[in-house]
Amino acid sequence: MAEAMKTEDCFAEPGDVECDFCTGRKRKARESCLVCLASYCKTHVKSHYQSPAFKRHKLVKASTGLQEKLCSKHDKLMEIYCRTDQTCICYLCMMDEHKTHDTADAAAERTEKQGQLKKVLRKSEQRLQEKEKKLHELKRNVNTVKRSAQSAVEDSERIFTELIRSIEKKRSEVTELIRDQEKTELSAAEELLEQLEQEITDLKRRNTELEQLSHTEDHIHFLQIFQSVCVPPGYKDTTSTTVQHLSFDEVRKSLSDLKVQFKEFCEKEFCKVKLPEIPKCKEDHEEPQLSSESERCGHSKIVVAVQMPSHPKPKTREDFLQYFFPLTLDPSTLYHKLSLSEENKMVTWRGGAQRYPDHPERFDHWPQVLCKEGMSGRCYWEVEWDNGGWGVSISVSYKDICRKGDGDKCAFGGNSKSWSLECSSIHSFWHNNIETKISAPPSSRIGVYVDHSAGTLSFYGVSDTMTLLHTVHTTFTQPLYAGFWMKRGMLKLCDPNVSD
C-alpha cells in the first residue's frame, strides 16, 4: 500500500501529466478539474475534496488538453452536444446561434452514442470473426496445396529415379552385349594370331635349311636331303581364316532411333503434366458481402493434378478426405428463383424471382447452379440436401454447357457434357438423357469422388460407412465443375473439417 501511495505522488516523468500547482520540480498529476481546467497531484487535489467551494467541481483522471474542452468563442466549458451540427458547444452557444438546433446534455448524448458504439463494436467483432475464419480457411487451403505439391514432387522424384535407374540398367546391358561380342571375336583372332606366328617361325627355319641345301657341293647329300625338305609341312590352311570385321552401326542406329522416340514420347506425355497458369485475384479492399475471396476474383479456379501412376482407390471416408476439395457456389450461374447463403456454401429455393443482374453464364430456365472451381485430378466433396421429397440432382459438368433455354442441352444429365445423380426417395443416374436406375437406400448426405485422369466418377451415400451408389468410367476431356439442380428446400456444401 505504501509503495502504491508513493507511486501516486512521485515526480512527473516525460509523457506524464504535470501538476499545475507544484512549484519547482513538478509532481505527477492525479486528477484534473473540468471547472478549474487544471491538473492536481495527490497533495494539491485534497482541497477539492475538503473545501465545500469545490463540491460542484467535476474531477476526472488526469489528462492533457483541458483547454480543448473550452468553447473557443465564449471561453466556457463545453457541456452541450448539438445534434444538428454534430459538435460540442457551451451553454452560451446553445442560447445564441444554436438556440433553434436539436441539442442535448453531453452526458446523455454520450450514453446514447455509447449504445450505438456497442452495435458498431459488435459488427466489428463479427467482421473480425469472419476475417479470422477466412484466414483459417485460406491457411488450411495453403497447407493443402503445400501437401499436395510436396506429394507430387516426391512422386515425380521417385518416378524419375526409377526411370533413370531403368535407363542405366539398359545402358549397362547394351554395353555388356557389345563387350561380349568383342570378347568372342578377339578370342578367335588371338588364337589365329598365335597359329600364324608359329607357322611363320617354322617357315623361316625351313627357308634357312633350303638356302643352305642349295649351296652344298656334295651331290649325294643334296639328293638325300632334297626329298625330305621339298615336302611342304602339314599346316592347317589359314588363308580362309580371317577376323570378322565387327560393325556396330546397327547398334548405333537403334540407339539413335530410341533416343528420338524417347524424346518425342517425353514431349508428348509431358504436355499432359504441365499446369495451366492460374489467374491471380486482384486486390479488393472493400468489405465482402456474401461473396467469397474467390468470387471477388472474377475467375474460375482450375485445379490440375499432375498425372502420376495409379494409386490405390480410396475405400474409407478417411481415404476419400485426403482428396477433399472445398467448393464455392458461383452466383453468376444461379437461377433467379434460387438464393445463396453461408458464404456461397448453401443454395435455397425461394420460389419468387430474385433480382439478379443478367449474366451470360446464368441458367435462365433450369433451377441450377454451378460451382466456381474447375477440377482436373483427384477430388472429393460432400453435400447435404433436404427439400421435402422433391429431390435434388448432384452433378458434374463441363464449363461450356449451354445456359440459355429449356432444352436438354442445358439440363444436368440431359446431354454429353454433364453427369448427374438424381436424389429423392430413390436414386437414379442421368447422362446424355439416358437414365440408369439405382437400387440403394436414400441418403441425405452424398459424397462425390472424381479421378479425372482415370476417367472415374463415383457417388457415395455417406453415413457411418461409405455406400457406393454409382460409378462411371469414361474419358474426361475438360475440367469438371460441380453443379446442382433443385426445386424445393436447400442444399449445402459440407466441410468435413468443421463439426456440424
Automatic annotation (TrEMBL):
SUPFAM superfamilies assigned to the protein according to its UniProt record, in alphabetical order: B-box zinc-binding domain (SSF57845), Concanavalin A-like lectins/glucanases (SSF49899)
Coiled-coil blocks: 114-213
GO molecular function, one term: zinc ion binding
B box-type domain sequence ranges: 66-106
Residue span(s) of domain B30.2/SPRY: 307-500
Record bears the keyword Coiled coil: yes
Keywords of this entry: Coiled coil, Metal-binding, Zinc, Zinc-finger
One GO CC annotation: cytoplasm
PANTHER family (UniProt xref): B-BOX DOMAIN CONTAINING, E3 UBIQUITIN_ISG15 LIGASE TRIM25-RELATED
Annotated protein name in UniProt: Tripartite motif-containing protein 16-like
Species whose genome carries this gene: Astyanax mexicanus
